UniProtKB/TrEMBL annotation:
It comes from Pundamilia nyererei. Residues 100-169 form the Anoctamin dimerisation domain. It is found in: Cell membrane; Membrane. This is Anoctamin. The gene is ANO9. It is a multi-pass membrane protein.
Amino acid sequence: TSFGALKDFVKHIVPLGVYLVMPAPTHRTFDYVLVADKVDNEQKTLRQEAFIAQLEKKNIHITRITHDNKDFFGIRAPSEMFEVYQYLLKVSDSCNCCGDEKGAVTQATRIRIVHFILHHTYINTGENLEELLMKDVFETMFCLHERKQQKELRKKWARWTALFSRQPVNDIKSYFGEKVALYYLWLAWYTKLLVPAAILGVIVFLYGLAFFNTNPLIKEVCESNITMCPRCEKRCGTWQLSDSCTYAKVTHLFDNEGTVAFAMFMAIWATLFLELWKRHRAKHVSKWKVYDWCEEEEELIMELVNDPNCKAKQFRHSYLRSTLVLILVTLMLMLIIGLAHALVVFRVVAAPLMSESKWEFLKDNANLVSVFLGAVLHYITIQIMTRKLNSLAATERSFTVKMFTFQFFTLFSSLFYVAFFLGRINGHPGNYVRLAGHRLEECHPSGCLTDLFIQMAVIMLLKQTLNNIVEFTVPWCKRLVNEKAAKKLERKCGHCYRKACREENGCIEPCDICKHREWLRNYHLASSDAFSLFNEFLEMVIQFSFTTIFVAAFPLAPLLALVNNIFEIRLDAIKMVRLEQRLVPKKTNDIGVWTKLLEAIGVLAVIANGLVIGITSDFIPRLVYRYHYGPCAKGKLDYTDCMEGYINDTLSTAYMNSSNFDAFINPWERHNFSITECSYRDYRNENDYSLKSQFWMVLAVRFAFIILFEHVLVMCKFIAAWFVPDNPTQVKNERLQDKLTRLKHELR
């Protein structure tokens, strides 16, 4: 055969014992297991037999065990196949120093190669394994856990009692491959650097809490006798500003001077985190000998191992396909934005309906309850859209950017509305903007930041808590159910008393009973696939977005992320080691496109936090009042507080018909009616509702602050990125020394 010719060629040109490994004794563990239902369908049976025959042509050993109307095919590749792989690694350009080119072939490497061969084996109809699985010719496929290594990982890592223990990344790399190891390395690094961010966030929160009862702005709201205009039409009446005392206190917890400093810190933190991560990654991939690893080159090597007569894959680009993808992505984003608009309509309609509820609590807190319900509904929408998008994208190999974009818009579209549009496009008394026949929502006199905080807190808490519960309990319950079935099947197949079968370090072929028992144990675990790790990364990168983008509105976000990640690491470890089928080990030297997405989030965080502080927060209006309109600005230095009168300064006066609160009277006609005065949040003249000069002053300072904030932080980010090199000097020196050693070895 062509494979045999390549094998002979390798054996002749490479001195045996120098570059190649002597044929190992019988390999105890199978590399893969295929499972098929026994069916009467002749076409399916013929396809099964054709595929198995193609594998046997490649000298792959197949062990077939039939049990309970299922056929189990144990697959074991010959040692010669791995000798060829090792030789091709040695003569390759980028993969020749990975350490796999000499020494014993690890089980992780065997699984990776056999996985590639299985997916690149075709029967005479042109169908490969993926198509056969879709047509139910085979039920499933999985690689086997190694009992001894699995036990070690459970002891060191995959248990709740090891919650604060250091992760054995080298053992994870040896068992699950570099791709999984880099995920846990990145997650541990991210969690570690969340500690200073969480501490500072708590300090900012405590700073707001320290002045909870003594802040003059809170006192001004709580002791006020100002009558406010109705929040809605027909069912709402006037209300007292002092009724919102609690709301004002909560707002001050997250809208204070410390928030600005914290937002600046988090923008620089995001940059330092990424730069330090690149250094951390470089140290480990250099240690693992995959710094220069090229995935495309290894794929070529495995193509040759699978078929020596193969042809190189041709890269193609279709403008038509790209156009169709762009149109579909645009339509999907429009759908997501439409859902965000639907949530806005829900909040607008829900508040007035609840204000006429029979329940006193709903009636008095209609706006607050509608905000909470909107946030919960937003979370439910996120979950539904995520599942739909996953099912749509499952056929696309490189869909990371598209999936992240969809998820990002689904999560943040509603938050962007609350942050930058809520209360700014609703009009004024006598000229309100309406949606679905109802007035748009207004900001509370203390500001809109609390609405943003509530939205973020609800989504983040629900997403993290419920996701982790579902993520762990589903495979755990499946294991409990399947364990009973497995034990029942084990009782049917009898017991083995061979000492050799129980010897984990031996190389003696186990008996059929022990083979089948091991296969059943893995078969009944929750399935895993190429998207399992993608979903974990996506979850963490979305969390990173929450932690950085709107952190000015929610300083406790890093603390919630830190607590979640401490449990997330162990949860994922237990799930991968004990509850799920073994992931196919993948070799890589980076986390891929996720690095670019994290960098993009870091830039967006600077823009978003600048806009939140400049537009959503009351930081700028308070600053302008203190230095331009307040008592201290007018030279009245005997005042104990320069912010006295601020709340009243942000309110404007409107006139209502005393007999009908829904009818606002034009200021110049107020002498013709029996009127009631009320206040609303805006900078408008009471004579004609025109905007005051103070509005334009505040607006100008807002824009000036945003430009200054973002330019300063972008400059700081560039300086931080330049100051912290991606590649440590120690790694450069070690790599040079390693290359020199290998070259000297070649000269001997």
